[in-house]
């Protein structure tokens, strides 16, 4: 009887119980959801929504643009003047105190603290300086590569001068004929107008 029971027990268990699977603790294993983190362990995670939250405002985009152009640092006063000049579409020398103050207050109270909190910039209130922050690389890729180049007025004026030197003698020669006499004042007026307009624009661009 006892031998029969022992025989049945051996048949049911099939031997000693197998060990339960143990979860791998290898530090190189990937997360269970299959995602990998691109950030370093000590680096602050950054969401694309945070980037666009900053860049959706034109004045904040201009802050990053001007600091980058100034080799990474500007004073609050200089930054306010540059942005005010852009917004008013006039040279810095023509900005009045009210226009400058409006931009200065907006930067001081709203935009700069917000950008500093997210490390887009480093804003030192005590010194009144703004520098590019540790997270600037996240924003840089979405900024324009460079500003549109200013017109080369000197080249333009040289071209008009050469045109005048070539056409004026030609008009003088053609003036001896009836047909040339008709076109002589037209050509001369065209060259003079082109030169005058170019010279005026070049002068305005320097102020």
Secondary structure category: mainly alpha
Mean pLDDT: 71
The overall strand count is 3
Distance between the termini: 115 Å
Q: How much helical structure, as a percent, in the residues?
A: 55-70%
* Relative strand content: 5-15%
Total number of distinct structural domains: 2
Which value, in Å, is the CA radius of gyration? 37 Å
**Low-confidence regions:** 18-42, 203-207
The CATH topology name of the largest domain reads Arc Repressor Mutant, subunit A
With helices defined by DSSP (H or I, 4 residues minimum), what is the helix count?
8
Shape: elongated
The CATH architecture designation of the largest domain is: Orthogonal Bundle
Superfamily at the CATH H level of the largest domain?
A: Winged helix-like DNA-binding domain superfamily/Winged helix DNA-binding domain
Query: Which sequence of SSEs, written as H and E, runs from N to C?
Result: HHHEHHEEHHH
Considering the chains and any ligands shown, give keywords for the structure.
single chain, 207 residues, mainly alpha, Arc Repressor Mutant, subunit A, 2 domains, three-stranded antiparallel β-sheet, 8 helices, 3 strands, 58% helix, disordered C terminus, DUF7344 domain-containing protein, membrane, transmembrane helix, transmembrane
Describe the structure in brief.
This protein has 207 residues and is mainly alpha-helical. It is 58% helix and 5% strand.
Please characterize this protein's 3D structure.
The protein is mainly alpha-helical and 207 residues long. The protein has two domains: 48-140, Arc Repressor Mutant, subunit A (Orthogonal Bundle), CATH 1.10.10; 153-205. It is 58% helix and 5% strand. It has helices at 2-13, 48-55, 58-69, 76-88, 97-117, 136-140, 153-174, 178-205, and strands spanning 73-75, 121-124, 129-132. The longest helix is centred in the last third of the chain and has 28 residues, at 178-205. The protein is elongated, with a radius of gyration of 37 Å. It starts with a helix and ends with a helix.
């Amino acid at each position: 009887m006892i031998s029969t029971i022992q025989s049945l027990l051996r048949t049911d268990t099939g031997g000693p119980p197998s060990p339960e699977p143990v979860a791998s603790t290898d530090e190189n294993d990937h997360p269970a959801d299959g995602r990998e983190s691109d950030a370093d362990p000590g680096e602050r995670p950054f969401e694309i929504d945070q980037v666009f939250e900053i860049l959706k405002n034109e004045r904040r985009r201009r802050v990053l643009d001007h600091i980058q152009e100034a080799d990474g640092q500007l004073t609050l006063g200089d930054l306010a003047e540059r942005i005010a000049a852009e917004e008013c579409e006039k040279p810095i020398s023509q900005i009045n105190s009210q226009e400058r103050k409006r931009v200065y207050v907006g930067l001081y109270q709203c935009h700069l603290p917000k950008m500093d909190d997210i490390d887009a910039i480093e804003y030192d209130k005590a010194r009144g300086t703004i520098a590019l922050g540790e997270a600037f690389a996240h924003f840089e890729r979405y900024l324009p590569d460079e500003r549109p180049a200013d017109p080369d007025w000197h080249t333009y004026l040289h071209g008009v001068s050469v045109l005048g030197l070539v056409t004026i003698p030609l008009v003088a020669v053609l003036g001896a004929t009836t047909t040339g006499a008709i076109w002589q004042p037209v050509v001369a007026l065209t060259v003079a107008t082109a030169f005058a307009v170019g010279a005026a624009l070049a002068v305005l661009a320097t102020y």
